Here is the input.
Amino acid sequence: MSEQHESATTYRVVLNDEEQYSIWWADRDLPAGWHAEGTEGSREECLAHIEQVWTDLRPASLRRRMAAA
Here is the structure.
């Protein structure tokens, strides 16, 4: 993908059931198991948002098990 096309593409931040983040093209259907988190923008904006909000990279199920132990 060309750099110009990449910068013109709108992405969205997506989240799965394990509270893991990724980005996905805003104009495409989401893959199974993922839902829109609410943030859309350039690739760089979405990745910056993820870096800011995803501070604990452990899957949600592992965090719950560790909290219960």
